[in-house]
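Justification of computing resources. Each target in the renewal requires a structure prediction run like the one illustrated here; the chain below, 189 residues long, is used simply to show the kind of job we budget for.
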Amino acid sequence: MGTLLPTAYLPSIIYIAECLRNDEIVIEIFETYTKQTIRNHCSIYGPNGRQKLSIPVVKVHGNHTLTKDIRLSSDHNWQPIHWRSIETAYNNSPFFLYYRDYFEPFYLKKFDFLLDFNTKLLEIIFMILRVEKGIGFTDHFVNRLNNHHNFIFTPYTQVFSPKSGFIPGLSVIDLIFNLGPEATDHLLC
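Resulting structure tokens:
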């Protein structure tokens, strides 16, 4: 089995670096869903610093809902809010206009399940980074999620870093929108 990871919404640079270090990525989908984690949260660099984006979800079986069964809430208008936040944060980044068309459809189209939404985003991220990675899923609960290796953040220029300094550990979209084609090299350093 490859590296075992939870599903993640616009995963962090650390998560993607872990994916790049391994030949195969396996997503744990039979775990009991844990709220307020990377599964439905991400961080971007907004005008006021670190900004968390959180997808509202529905646990169809309460606290016993498996990750694979988590539904996206249709009671909240979160998609346009998230997209406006991403636009505000990265509209002035060097590569936002180049990559926006890859991400914007995720905020216009309805998805039913968090796992589908996150997996399709991960596939787009791998495509942008020009890495071929197979994404597999567990067929039963495996209690062995990988701990991320020590990852040393090499600072890069972020949209608001001249004003507010470098913020590590953000979503990989921060790296993509700021470094463009150099993002993969930065992750492999």
